[in-house]
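Hmm, how's this folded?
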Amino acid sequence: MLPQSDHQRPCTGEKCRRTATIYGPYLQDVDVTAAKPPLTYRDAGVDIDAGNALVERIKTQVKRSSRREVMGGLGGFGALFDLSGKYREPVLVSGTDGVGTKLKLAQEWNRHDSIGIDLVGMCVNDVLVQGAEPLFFLDYFATGKLDVDVAARVVGGIVEGCVRAGCALIGGETAEMPDMYAPGEYDLAGFCVGGVEKSKLLDGHRVAAGDVLLGIDASGPHSNGYSLIRRVLERAGASPQLELGATTLGDSLMAPTTIYVKPILALLEAHAPHAMAHITGGGLVENIVRVIPEHLGIHVDASTWALPPVFDWLQREGDISNTEMWRTFNCGIGFVIVAAAQDVSAMQATLSDHGLAGRVIGEVLPASGAERVRIG
């Protein structure tokens, strides 16, 4: 405690509230009436009203994706989904993902309308691999300063993705975090839950030597390998308007991830594949073998399909080796079905009926030592 001094005196009333006492050789009253103004959350960079405006803007869009099992609407603390009566022995399959640095191109090129389709596709296609029907989806949108128009475009893409997948956009979170993101930047994450009867769960245990790999076309790089893609773009100094076959480089790179859900669910109703794989990060090298028992391997015959123009351009301009291409990109094959050879023709017909092309791209073989994947 400071010693008592003749200079000390009590301070009361308004004067006390507007002065500060500084101890030194002499006691001084320092006037702080030039007070700092009171702060609000908006002053700190968070606009609650903008967030509320976004919710109102997207409500009509979100209704497009609704399912009869959805209980309640937007705005609750938790989203509700009624599973009663749908399954006898339900197994819930969940997945989460983002869209990687494809977001950088979406922001640089002002292509916000389809990036939400990518977000949904990356999640629902993963859930689908185990035979599950995607039931509902939640999104997380984070930005430094909320631009309601941009956010509404992004959410519109998420809704479209959910409609294509047949799942409900049941909730989400919009986070405005000043200083975390540069102006114009945002980040996305998605969360999907699907359901499947326990007896119909696909876990790869039926895969056997002699099974066929049925590859289904991708729309482009989907949402993988974009850190390398951006380096190639930088090196080549290429414009998104560069003509690439019948389209442009920008359209090829921003083509939304193919959502395989409805055709594959139809295939599962009619046929019994042994396993399925979504070709994402790790490319054809790492994803197919994830659903193959350890005593088996795969051979992918690269001559069975032509490398799409966008991948040919990337490989040429980036001087990327074949090995690096196979383990980074889908190279035109976005989904793979592993099936008994005698079932393949019927499966191809079902896929064709639902607008997808399936081609035989390889087979399952006994593993040869440590090498389980051969492409060539």
